Amino acid sequence: MPAICRTPAPPLSSTDKGIVLFIAALAGFLTPFDGSAVNIALPVMAAEFHLDAITLSWITTAYLLTSAVFLVPFGRIADIYGRKRIFLYGIAIFTGTSLVMTMVSFPEMLIAIRLIQGFGGAMIFGTALAILSSVFSPGERGRALGIYIMAVYLGLTMGPFLGGILTGYLGWRSIFLVNVPLGILACLLILWRLRGEWAECQGERFDLKGSVLYACSLVAVMLGLSTVPDLKGVLLLSVGIVIGVIFVLYELRVPLPVLDLSLFTKNRVFAFSNLAALISYCATYAVTFLLSLDLQLTRGFSPEQAGGILIVLPAVQALLSPVAGRLSDQIDSQVLASIGIALTAVGMFPLVFISESTPIWYLVACLVVLGAGFGIFSSPNINAIMSSVEKRYLGVASGMNGTVRLVGQMLSMGIVMMLFSLFIGPVMITPEYFPEFLQSLHYAFLIFSLLSLVGVVASLMRGKGHPVSR
């Protein structure tokens, strides 16, 4: 069926563009704030619900899993039915589930609500970047994306600090309660001031079969990683990989796929920029999760103290992202992004050698270098991705970028769960298991360091990019 691409919303004034950017930035703040704040609260939640190490990891992974499963489909749905509509629904679901999280009374419900919350997160991730890329021209897009990424990192920055304070004084449920007024504000602003709609491919068919194959592959892989080395885990992991191959073969034959693989096979910048992002997120996401547990469990720090230390990483990211975004409008992203991911490897490797007696200044120095590396990498890399595709693919590109981020984060947690399963097992992390816990940390940081080096190669292989004229 041929594409029926309708005329998008008319160009917006500078004031309207500023309002769109504010709404996107507010939504961009919400979801990472929630995730980073929850990581700080995990030890308290584990104590309340008597959670073992692997189940504790699922509080974070459940959200990432459903977000990753539905992000590409919602990017495609947004291109067909309207990005603003899907964006609004996503914030509404995220806000509603945040309110329900304050009423959770048993662990199964905790993980179930996190799964639904990830569904709303997928709608947000799959549309925010596409809306910004629709509104801002290539010459001003880097600055807008830099501000958006700064808001994301501001959420990451405030999450550990405020999450620690809220958990310490008001309990972990207060973290989710904070999301409610911010989510309501975002919904009201969308309804009141976000004019027009963006649906360049209205009328095209949605690839349901491809979406189901994609979802089954991701779910099987993550369930497998969480239960390795058991036979069940190996089988699930194998099944997930096989379904993933079937998904790729199916998508290559479908006229209107949920994920147009020609974006990867015919667009070198798009393919290798996404690969570099996947590796980078896989190498960095679990750092905060692991150090939060290390600081609170093996060192006895309070949630407030741990948050005060971990705030360094996203704070540096937030400071450098808008600068790197502006530079990416003048300097080729290949150079900036490659420097950034190389710095990530430099900051990661020293963490391989941490112990219970490692001084705090050592951890802080590593976090500063990690934050600088990812701050320099992220905005130029996203600008390269979004500038390398035609306008009709912006929703898919946005969804793909968000999916790469979430799949990378999910695989990062998958590596951690696999190491916990290998070295600790399904038990609570009590003092008698601290040596095994630290051994898991050492192997995790070693794997992440090696992945960062591979990411440098992927980033360099993209070549020099040239924005698609729109």
Content of β-strand: under 5%
Q: What's the total helix number?
A: 17
Average pLDDT: 83
**What is the name of the CATH superfamily?**
MFS general substrate transporter like domains
* Count of individual beta strands: 0
CATH architecture: Up-down Bundle
Under the CATH scheme, which class?
A: Mainly Alpha
Q: Which word captures the global form?
A: globular
Largest sheet: none
Topology as a string of helices (H) and strands (E): HHHHHHHHHHHHHHHHH
Number of domains: 1
* CATH topology value: Growth Hormone, Chain: A
Alpha-carbon distance between the termini? Answer: 24 Å
Considering DSSP H and I runs of 4 or more, what fraction of the residues is helical? over 70%
- Any idea what the radius of gyration is? 21 Å
Structural class: mainly alpha
Q: What are the low-pLDDT stretches, counting only 5+ consecutive residues below 50?
A: 1-7
